[in-house]
Hints:
Layout: H1 4-25, E1 28-32, H2 36-47, E2 54-58, H3 61-71, E3 80-84, H4 88-93, H5 116-119, E4 121-122, E5 125-126, E6 129-134, E7 137-141, H6 152-156, E8 167-170, H7 176-185, H8 202-216, H9 226-234, E9 238-243, H10 253-258, E10 259-262, E11 266-267, E12 272-273, E13 277-285, H11 287-290, H12 293-302, H13 305-315, H14 331-340, E14 344-345, H15 353-367, H16 373-387, H17 398-420, H18 426-467, E15 470-471, E16 478-479, H19 483-489, H20 502-531, H21 539-551, H22 554-564, H23 571-583, H24 596-623, H25 628-636, H26 641-669, H27 672-679, H28 690-699, H29 705-725, H30 751-755
Parallel strand pairs: 1-2, 1-3, 8-9, 13-14
Antiparallel strand pairs: 3-13, 4-5, 6-13, 7-9, 7-10, 11-12, 15-16
Amino acid sequence: MPSRRCRFALAAPALILLLPALAAAAPLRLWHAYRDDEARALDAIVATFKGEEVEVLAVPFDAYASKLQAAIPMGEGPDLFIDAHERLGDYRARDLVAPVGDALEPGGEAVFQGPALAAVRQGGEILGLPISQKCVALYMNTALVKEPPATLEDIAALAGSLPQGVVPLAYEASNAYAHMPILAAFGGAMLGEDDQFGFVGPGPERSLELVRSLIERRVVPEDANGALVTDLFNAGRAAFVISGPWFAGGLGEEARRLARVVPLPKVRETGLPMRPFMTVEAVMLSPQGARRAEARALARHLAGAAAAATRIEVARTPPVRSDVAVPAGDAFIAAFTEQAKVAIPMPTSPAMRSTWEPSTRAIRKVLRGDAPPDVALAEAKRRFDDVRRPLPPAASPAPLLVALGALALLLALRWVRAARGAAPGAARWRLFRRSLRRSLPAYKYVAHAVVAIGVLVVVPLVIGAATSLFAGRGEGLRYVGLANFISILTARGGPLFASGSFYLVLAVTVLWTAVNLCLHVLLGVSLALLLHRPTLRLRALYRVLLIVPWAVPSYVTALSWKGMFHRQFGAVTGLIEAVNSALGTSIEPISWFSSFTTAFTANVTTNVWLGFPFMMVVTLGALTAVPEDVLEAAEVDGATRWQRLRKITLPLIRPVLAPAVTLGAIWTFNMFNVVFLVSGGDPDGTTDILVSEAYRWAFTREAQYGYAAAYSVLIFLLLTLATREWRFRRRTPVSAIPQGGAEAGSAPVPAAATEAV
Length: 757
């Protein structure tokens, strides 16, 4: 009989011939980020596809792009995916998308409406098949207004005629995307030609002055976010709202019945219409999917006329095809279809991502009165140019390799010397080998833990540290050595304590950590001492109530506190108004995020609410180990309550509090959720901490992962050095044995107990 090796050699050619057939038989993989009605519409469309089996995977929107970037290059991603057209520039640079080829039906270029097909065309190639187009339009409450306005100024004129507490217009005025329709009416743009910052000049300045006047006249609510806008319209407290099709999903039954959608009006000052950004959602093919005929057929099916009709029926999505009629009497779809005809397709350049942060910061500064429009926009341009400046030149990795080799040699020599001892010899080597064999069973017990820690902790740390030595905007990383660290530590060539510099952010981070940690320990220990008293009634109930802030997810708490700090509609403002009404005072509502002091206070308040229960629980556990007989003896000897606390209780619980305080300092130093969700770095990024600054470089400033990794390495080094130096020295209790001997089992008495008398 042939050997096993011979049988494998005979079967190998057959397996190679079968590989293409096996690959072709694999089901098609389709990824999307839809939810609710849109997801149901997609499932219905896929169910009518006559071809290979299709695996549909819904991926969370926040992680969608990163999962595509990780999966497609490894060959584990989708064959097709649905995404917004503005990401095509980044996807093409990373080789995540391929031309659609024959997926575009014959004569298809004449079928798609308006700029939909132009939005997915790059370099003469079509990189996606449009399936829907989304932009903002004007929602009106027909119970408050009967006719659509002709101009934006007509909406502002309603300020004196609406019921008390009703705003004429609600939208996210401080958001750059929401500001685009007004900016376009003044002839402005977010991104200019040759990827230059376009949000500068007389037109953009006048657009900001107009919005600021609307807020000052209470036409538009200040600091409005999406949730607030939805709540105002649902409660009948907003006559008009600027939002997109997604807004209808958050409306209640009554608000949906009263809502009517119309195109955005003109701006009387310029006579031009408000033109929003338009996002075209398209079916895109990955490189491996583009090679499969069935994948191209599925893409053609998803973008076909029958699929568009299903989306209209199930999800009420405005069509992008001219051969699909808008249902008669459906004003909702008709309004968005009409609005899309004059909308501006969002640029696909990766530089567009760098415009959002400086533009939004400039808008907020102007609307809060912190800076005039020309100054704020000039600063935004400087920030954009700083993010877009050329990357450091490539460096030679030879010095790094030499240093790593020398370090490895030094460690090897040290290990050999330790193994052989001071006097080398065959006897010592035999002793070492015998000791190693005896230790092998112990190594087997800990091997799995070593592997797990290595994979989950050590490997990510090494990869992160290595990434800090490279530079790039998401694609084509190149080795630059210590250039990222030099740029950070030199404040990118600007003043050392300029806004956003490493040293200013570090100072804010240290202040943030110190203030929070002091309040955490003070409140936690004080409440624990109070709850530990045996005479306190309902102690169990109080403990449960006080631990609730720690049990609730931090992002939920952060968003709740942010809502309470809203100047116009927050709970704090409501409390101030109640005090004014009761006492006849005239306290003005606080604009919490317009100055560093108030924004920092809002962040600290939220984080203290989140953090003190941990210290309280740790202290309660430590207090149970404090010997009662020692406290009673000190009390009998005449020690006061304060002396017993200072000389006995605190020294005994100190060793337990030390690691808790260290952990609290590390958690607070890296408390991203509170800073990002409550103040968002406002005003003007002054309340950002190191970890939030690293996040911005990684995810809002053109994916400069190397620069963000350098920030992370510096954070790691700072925490490592700080925790090694900042140690609580444990006091060892000294036993005081009475004359005549000590009874068995008696508790040792600290020396501090005798000092307390």
